[in-house]
């Protein structure tokens, strides 16, 4: 009992226990520490990697998205870094009084900024004078700024003015085949915010996104305990692979001119929609194509007016232009006897009566005259003789209700009703059958190409910028629905529509070539009632032409849907306002030859796009071109006129355009033709008064240009 209560003995026991536990704990720590030293891991986590992660960082090296060019190498879409202007109004972030991070002098700041962005001093001041706001932005005027504009503003040394940098896509031509080319933008929904990748959202940009995008690289460097990069530690882990470049079949000269014509008519006629496309029938190359409504792919102005690409997404009833295919089938079957006669006006078909458009017809006329007058009765008679089954086979052979495999998103195939005799008869004149402009013009290539249908194509070649390897897209024949002799006969008969007094297309003749044209007036279905409209101008008007008719180099197709303004002009005037000058210009380009051998003081214009302004001007002057003017607020040339490889006299005016905002040059002393070069490059229209040379310009040198405005020019 005495031993149990001995305090001294108890303390000795506890001491031994504590020493034992301490020794065991020490052994555990020694083992653990030794394990960590040897393996450099804790619970399977590599400590070396953790330290590297703590003191190193990696970031994406973005690949350059491939540039899209026209067939002549002029840029249509290119990568750019854009900047957005931000003004800090609060002093909460200004810790260094000598280097304030907020605006000090608002008047001075507004005055300086008004010189570089399209806002007045008073408008800027109203933004800067807001109460209870830490920072402000400047709307559209302060976004999509070029590096040149950013540098100019930074040179003003304005406290409190900052820039946010974002990757962007530049479309230097403004409205330029916008729905076909499409656009690319930063994908805001991506989970990897570090990538900040541009993604094709529409048109060619979307269809060829994988080819254009390339592959991002990766770079790493070390940082100190404060998180700052340590100089000299940067290591490139993966080099970026830039996207491939795409050269389109579009011709800058023709496309820009078509846009100008379409804008003018769209503003005058006020239609719901318009479409125009110019195609080379020998190759299927789309040389120019546009629609209205349209949009500016850089500013996105107008994008909400119409998202659909009318070339391929919205099939419609074509009306009488479809009769070209009906006549071709009849000639090919040997049943079209041009000088036989028939009674025009109306024809009974099981299920109803079909009338000519004037209801009463023109009495007893020849089949050839019936074609010139666009007689519905005539084509119904032909197909009845041919047989509806045979006619349907021809429609299939021409590609009706078959995809053109354009590669563009949401391509429609169209359809037709063919259950009853009346439905079958209606298809002969383009009613009850729907088709897209792409399908229709592709079918028409067989008429202008010796009976062979060529697949429509908008890509000329794809180029790897690293290896310079080229993949040239070859023309592709899709079918041969008619013979060469048939095709040539159809072309001959199409001239009667233009050059005979009774023809429906007499207004479509041009001065520099003989053309064949077919017009169309298609009924439209009211989407609410499901029935055809009955109003005076509630139609889709169209015209398709072939030139030069002896051996067509071009097919031009133009549509005008439900024009509202019919007081000053009718639909024919509006269509010819696009068709006639466009076809004239296209044929003229075909006829351009080299200068005569005796001409001196001339040379080929070199390619100066993608050079700086200074380099471009120096290159031109070195060759001998002394009259060079620059349009635009940027530092890099994105367009030129005349185009590269064009033969030009040394005293000819050369116009260069930079990226960024378009600006007005000093054109005093210029000829009218020289001023029109600006219009061809920019799409801006001019109103001329007088003759001779420019003595007055409404917009002063350096003023911003707007394609929605027309600029007055006085000549003497």
From TrEMBL:
Q: To which species is this protein native?
A: Jeotgalibaca ciconiae
Q: How does it sit in the membrane?
A: Single-pass membrane protein
Q: What's the protein called, per UniProt?
A: PASTA domain-containing protein
InterPro entries associated with the record: Beta-lactam/transpept (IPR050515), Beta-lactam/transpept-like (IPR012338), PASTA_dom (IPR005543), PBP_dimer (IPR005311), PBP_dimer_sf (IPR036138), PCN-bd_Tpept (IPR001460)
Q: Where are the transmembrane segments?
A: none
Q: Name one GO molecular function term.
A: penicillin binding
What are the record's GO terms for cellular component? Answer: plasma membrane
Q: Which domain of life is it from?
A: Bacteria
């Amino acid at each position: 009992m005495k031993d149990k209560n001995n305090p001294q003995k108890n303390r000795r026991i506890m001491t031994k226990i504590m020493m034992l536990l301490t020794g065991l704990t020490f052994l555990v720590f020694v083992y653990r520490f030794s394990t960590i030293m040897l393996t450099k891991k804790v619970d399977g986590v590599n400590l070396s990697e953790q330290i590297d992660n703590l003191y190193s960082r990696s970031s994406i090296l973005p690949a350059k998205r491939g540039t899209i060019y026209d067939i002549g190498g002029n840029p249509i879409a290119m990568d750019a870094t854009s900047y957005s202007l931000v003004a800090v109004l609060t002093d909460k972030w200004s810790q260094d009084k000598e280097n304030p991070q907020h605006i000090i002098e608002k008047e001075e700041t507004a005055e300086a900024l008004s010189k570089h962005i399209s806002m007045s001093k008073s408008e800027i001041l109203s933004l800067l004078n807001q109460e209870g706001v830490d920072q402000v932005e400047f709307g559209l005027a302060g976004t999509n700024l070029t590096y040149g504009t950013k540098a100019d503003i930074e040179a003003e040394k304005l406290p409190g003015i900052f820039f946010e940098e974002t990757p962007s896509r530049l479309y230097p031509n403004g409205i330029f085949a916008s729905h076909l080319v499409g656009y690319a933008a930063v994908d805001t929904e991506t989970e990897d915010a570090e990538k900040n990748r541009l993604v094709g959202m529409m048109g060619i940009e979307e269809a060829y996104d994988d080819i254009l995008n390339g592959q991002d690289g990766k770079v790493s460097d070390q940082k100190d305990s404060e998180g700052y990069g340590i100089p000299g530690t940067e290591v490139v882990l993966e080099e970026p692979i830039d996207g491939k470049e795409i050269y389109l079949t579009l011709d800058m000269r023709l496309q820009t001119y078509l846009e100008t014509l379409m804008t003018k008519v769209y503003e005058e006629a006020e239609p719901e929609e318009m479409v125009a496309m110019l195609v080379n029938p020998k190759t299927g190359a789309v040389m120019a194509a546009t629609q209205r409504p349209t949009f500016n792919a850089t500013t996105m102005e107008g994008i909400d007016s119409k998202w659909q690409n009318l070339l391929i997404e919205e099939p419609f009833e074509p009306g009488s232009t479809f009769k070209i295919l009906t006549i071709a089938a009849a000639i090919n079957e040997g049943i079209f006897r041009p000088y036989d006669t028939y009674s025009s006006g109306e024809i009974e078909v099981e299920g109803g009566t079909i009338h000519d458009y004037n209801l009463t017809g023109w009495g007893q006329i020849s089949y050839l005259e019936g074609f010139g007058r666009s007689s519905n009765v005539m084509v119904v008679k032909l197909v009845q003789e041919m047989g509806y089954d045979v006619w349907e086979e021809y429609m299939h052979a021409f590609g009706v209700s078959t995809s053109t495999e354009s590669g563009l998103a949401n391509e429609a195939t169209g359809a037709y009703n063919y259950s009853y005799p009346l439905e079958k008869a209606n298809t002969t004149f383009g009613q009850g059958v729907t088709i897209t402009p792409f399908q229709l013009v592709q079918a028409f290539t067989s008429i202008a190409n010796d009976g062979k249908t060529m697949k429509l194509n908008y890509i000329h070649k794809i180029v790897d910028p690293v290896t310079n390897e080229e993949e040239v897209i070859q023309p592709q024949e899709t079918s041969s629905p008619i013979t060469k002799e048939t095709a040539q006969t159809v072309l001959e008969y199409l001239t009667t529509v233009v050059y005979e007094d009774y023809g429906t297309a007499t207004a479509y003749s041009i001065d520099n070539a003989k053309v064949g044209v077919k017009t169309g007036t298609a009924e439209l279905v009211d989407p609410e009632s499901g029935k055809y409209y009955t109003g005076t101008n509630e139609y889709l008007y169209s015209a398709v032409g072939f030139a030069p008719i002896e051996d067509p180099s071009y097919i031009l197709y133009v549509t005008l849907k439900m024009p509202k303004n019919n007081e000053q002009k009718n639909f024919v005037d509006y269509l010819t306002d696009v068709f006639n000058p466009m076809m004239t210009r296209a044929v003229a380009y075909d006829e351009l030859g080299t200068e005569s051998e005796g001409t001196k003081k001339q040379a080929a214009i070199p390619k100066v796009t993608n050079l700086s302004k200074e380099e471009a001007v120096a290159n031109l002057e070195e060759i001998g071109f002394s009259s060079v003017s620059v349009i635009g607020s940027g530092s890099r040339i994105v367009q030129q006129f005349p185009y590269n490889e064009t033969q030009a006299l040394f005293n000819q005016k050369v116009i260069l355009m930079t990226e960024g905002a378009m600006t007005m040059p000093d054109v005093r002393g210029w000829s009218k033709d020289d001023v029109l070069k600006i219009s061809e490059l920019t799409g801006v229209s001019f109103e001329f008064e007088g003759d001779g040379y420019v003595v007055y310009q409404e917009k002063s040198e350096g003023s911003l240009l707007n394609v929605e405005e027309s600029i007055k020019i006085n000549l003497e």
